[in-house]
């Protein structure tokens, strides 16, 4: 039994006239009659009562018509879903992101993607840079947003956002009322930083920034998440150098200050990059990457 036989049958059942059905199907009437006879023979029961004046469905034909219509409807749905999947319009994406990305690029990216491709569900995981690399290797996430650089040629990555570094001080700090703060003036202060293994690129950038202004920071407290670092600053546990977007956290007890030496030292900015497996072929992932690129141009 071929699919075209079923379509011939449905058309004839709708028209109940061989001539009109043949015209709709763009075939001659005798071949249509032969195909219907062949279908009935294969099924083992008659589908139509035929007289010289009219054509009517048999009882078995009526039941068969209902079932065939369901089959054709499901087939059309399957074709549609297949086409959408091939275009990356349905499915699921698992995304990892460093905590600070939630305060800069992530909201706009997610809002734009859901607006453009609502058929793809998103599963989000807040992960450190090193955790994202492990999850990408294991196939547990599809795309990540982390702090570059990444020295692993199994991945592809692109910078999508650049922001300045600023100083986070307790609001009771003696320098809290200054508009800009000289980083060198904090040389004897306790610093709060994250372990280097979590995001070596950003860690090295912060250490280099301090060294360029004449000192190595005394790290007295470590924290995994940027929100925790800011909370510890608010608790007067020390000072920190953080990406500027952390100001959007609006944590009470903390003030943020520009670095006075910013124009004198090399590279006072931190980046966010999107990363994916180099051999990734998924249309859904590729569609997501393209939308991120479009959003990044507007940031």
From TrEMBL:
Gene3D superfamilies documented for this protein: Periplasmic binding protein-like II (3.40.190.10), Winged helix-like DNA-binding domain superfamily/Winged helix DNA-binding domain (1.10.10.10)
GO CC term, one of those recorded: protein-DNA complex
Domain of life: Bacteria
UniProt KW Phosphoprotein keyword: no
Coiled coil segments of this chain: none
UniProt keyword terms in alphabetical order: DNA-binding, Transcription, Transcription regulation
Alphabetized SUPFAM superfamilies for the sequence: Periplasmic binding protein-like II, Winged helix' DNA-binding domain
A Pfam family per the record: LysR_substrate
Signal peptide per UniProt: none
Domain HTH lysR-type: 1-58
Listed GO MF terms: DNA binding; DNA-binding transcription factor activity
PANTHER family: HCA OPERON TRANSCRIPTIONAL ACTIVATOR HCAR, TRANSCRIPTIONAL DUAL REGULATOR HCAR-RELATED
Family classification: Belongs to the LysR transcriptional regulatory family.
The protein's name in its UniProt record: LysR family transcriptional regulator
Organism (species): Nostoc minutum NIES-26
